[in-house]
Task: structure prediction
Amino acid sequence: MADTAQKEPTARPLSPHLSIYRPTMTMAMSIAHRITGAKLYFGAALMVWWLLALASGPAAFAWAAWFFGSPLGFLVLFALSWALMHHLLGGVRHFVWDLGYGFDAPMRDRLATGTAVGGFVLTALVWALALALG
Result:
């Protein structure tokens, strides 16, 4: 016969909470990489809207061109271009890790800082070039 006596459940270890970990640059860049990836979905939807407006005729395209030419449109495009550059550099950082390099502490921090700074620098270069040619 089976023993039907109630046993107390064994205490299981709890998963560490965010309050236990000290925030690091690599943690911040990991979070930012996920956020920029989500923002790029929004950017893809805006690109589809722009392409549909282009295909729909002059009136629809004029409305889309007005939005993207407005201050809010410029802000959205600037934020999306930063998200793209940051996400691109985060992908390069992960590729370097996939090759087996950059795991020691100083190099990890340099790669994370390079991702953060490089995203802003590349965005500024892209916009400077676009405004100079445009």
